[in-house]
Amino acid sequence: MIERPKSKDFEDILRFIAEHERFVITSHARPDGDSIGSALALALGLEGLGKTVDVFGGDPVPRTFLALPAIDKIKVTDLVEGSYDGLLILECNDLKRPGLEGLDQYFAMNIDHHLDTVPFGDLNWVDSSAAAVGEMIYQLLLALDAPITLEVATNLYVAIFTDTGSFQYSNTSTRTFSIVADLVHLGVRPSEVAQAIHMAHPPERIKLLGRLLNTLEIHSSGKIASITLSQQMLEETGAAPNDVEGMVNYPLSINGVEMAAFFRQDQGDSFRVSLRSKDRYDVSSVARLMGGGGHKNAAGLSVEGKREGAVEKVIGELEKLLDS
Question: For the whole model, what pTM was predicted?
């Protein structure tokens, strides 16, 4: 039995949804499996209650997730307009994170599981114990007595499966497995989801992976590894920017490596950096120190400067974490 969250804002969100009819749902830019699966599951669940729902995103859906049920519901835009009673914003730390204009005109319900989220909505339900926002959306739909169809269940399973690193990360809990068991009972096929996520990549992604692994560096401690993606690599392989999802885990998989960094060239001398760690090290502390955020074992930040300087800054902070 999944416990009902003990949160006033959770109860207030339930009440607001029950009393209103038209909703807009969005999540963060550069969407991942949790943001996409959670948004779709919530939209389908609310529609099952007779609500009118639109889902908007600022960036295209990665190819990995194009086969998700009801994926066509996500409309890519840069401006949200229309008459809505409320905004449900998932996995964001402020209204700017989705990359959409017009969100500030709506009553905002912020639902997130990141430890460093500062409340910014009219209602804020933040649960850092949840492995994925997908867990929270499942609890919300249960409390609303919304129909959890196979389409809803599949989207929730993908949300949880991807944000736990296929159940590898330390955020995976007994609650995670209880929810996943419910979803499988509803008809989700774990093997089919795993194959769709891990074994259906376009050739361009594999070509890009080869180029990326050639940039592998294992730093002086032997416990930190990094890879670097340039814009030129994307152009030469024909890979899409979101084809890099999950590639930071390759350097982390090396025996003896405890932390990994993936440097992705953004614009000129600007890099987005994904950090990963094995159970013991909290890379979110480094991300927060450098203006980013995230989870204990999966975090991110941005850094300015030439590649060598950017790498030196980030790896230097990771080495300090290693020493501590």
Answer: 0.89
